[in-house]
Specification:
Blueprint lengths: L3 E5 L5 H9 L4 E5 L3 H8 L10 H10 L3 E4 L7 E4 L14 H10 L8 E4 L7 H10 L11 E4 L9 H7 L2 E5 L2 H11 L7 E5 H32 L3 H8 L22 H8 L5 H11 L1 H14 L7 E5 L14 H11 L3 E5 L15 H5 L4 E4 L4 H4 L14 E4 L6 H6 L3 E4 L6
Parallel strand pairs: 1-2, 1-4, 2-3, 4-5, 5-6, 7-8, 9-10, 9-11, 11-12, 12-13
Antiparallel strand pairs: 6-7
Helix pairs in contact: 1-3, 4-5, 8-10, 8-11, 10-11, 12-13
Amino acid sequence: MTKKLCVVGLGYIGLPTAVMFANHGVRVHGVDINETAISMIQNKQLHIEEEGLQERLNVAVDSGNFTASTTPEEADIFIIAVPSPINDDKTANLDYVRAATKSIAPYVKKGNLVILESTVPPRTVEDVMIPVLEETNLHIGNELYISHSPERVIPGRVFEELTNNDRIVGGINDESSRLTVELYEIFVKGTLHVTDATTAELVKVIENTYRDVNIAFANELAKISENLGVNAWEAIKLANYHPRVNIHFPGPGVGGHCIAVDPWFLAELEPDLAKLITLARQTNDGMPQHTAKRVKDIISQQGIQHGRVAVFGLAFKGNIDDMRESPSLEVIHHLRELGLDCSAYDPHIKENKLDIQTQSIEEAVEHADIILILTDHNEFKAIQPDLFAERLRTKIILDTKNCIQEQAWKDQGFDVYRLGDSKN
């Protein structure tokens, strides 16, 4: 069993991963440059929201298997799980990966294994990590082993999927892969598929790009359906009864640290070939503006020119507190450009990150002309509109996630609209 593990990056992936290893008997030292996050972790407090994380963090810290600080320590295995965002020009920003690799270099010794979990463009291990690690003067592949093993989890179900999902292991050589498989076998019940590092990098990007292209198709169908007067949600559901059809559903845009980012990695590498990928990204990036225009058109039909929009949902996905690349932020930006006032409510975003954010539904809907649902939190699915219906100035709701109990809203006198359905 591994003697000691050092995990660099204690965010939505790194912290659950570190805690999982600690709770399976591995001594783990976690590292993050965010001093506030480190202080909270040391005091068994969470700086992110994830189902089951608090209980597991408590056990990890209390057992003595998990420590955290802003600096690495010597270990047998190093896992790098830092962000890999895109720049304004849609190119990959690998500064965090490079900096994390440099931070562990003084602590790496002969026989160590370095694993990159961050989702990155193909050849990042070869072109970014290895040149940094060569400065340790250890022979890469014989004295220092390196792998890429990308995470495959969804927020809200991280621990279930860390355990049960199949995992890709891409070593720079057979020994790197063998050591990596040996590590993850500590808790992974899914199959560990071995390949080379560059293929592993490509596989992860392919997975998220597939989903992005599928969503773009659904969003095109939604816009076509609005013009036809057809309910896109019903049409897609019926199409999916075909045994070889699996269309995703439309939405106000694509967010998160993966689907909204990773396809650009391929577009950057092969711009002349990634035509479909680029078009899908542009389609999904255009949905926030389409959603805002739809709001404007709906309330204009009521003779309202300078209305107020109550936005429900700031997280990019239901039942989480993650706002990374959230389309809600872009929708709000475009609503304001159209001259509309906004309030925003999200029960999972505890910290006020926007000047329009409210602490209650009642406050958000006060004098609003339309409710705009952008995130399918369970709290929104279960809303009883009779509790606040009279606070609105105009009773209209646009549900971009098809998540509300429609009849309950109609019973309170609401006009109900969906993204992908021009009828109310």
